[in-house]
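hey so i finally got around to running the thing on that chain from the lab meeting. sorry it took forever, my laptop kept dying and i had to restart like 3 times. anyway pasting the input first so we r on the same page abt which one it is
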Amino acid sequence: MPKPLSLNFDPIERADELWARRWGAVPSMAAITSVMRAHQILLAQVDAVVKPYKLTFARYEALVLLTFSKAGELPLSKIGQRLMVHPTSVTNTVDRLEAAGLVTRRPNPLDGRGILAAITPKGRDVVEAATRDLMAMDFGLTGYDAEGCKELFEMLRPLRIAAGDFEDAELAVDPEANAGAV
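ok and heres what got predicted. didnt touch it at all, straight out
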């Protein structure tokens, strides 16, 4: 868990004030700094929960993804695509999961060069236990109720769409009707 800063002021708000005095008001600076600090806090919290299972949150996400698949296995390329990470990161993640006995690899019969990662029974047990623990601590978002979590998700969605993570379904249905939509 991250060590509390225990300051008697909000350092990001202070930086925002100082920034405004020097360069003018730029609300996006305070927003990005808040998002980055939130990322640090949340990652430290969830990593602390999955650490007893010898996982990181990235490895946990890979196991969850495999449990979502029909056969419990996916091509490494599909894992990278769904987790939105570089192929090297997928290889490293699967290497570590395999070393821990949580996944196995085998050649993809549909792709001569491809590799499938498959979750093992031990991997299923670990992901179930880690999921219970993460849900018990609300994935680190205990300061938000269900509605607040939904709002946070919706606030970050346009950023992910703009980055090209996925196509906005509303715009895809009738692009001309939504020409001015974000």
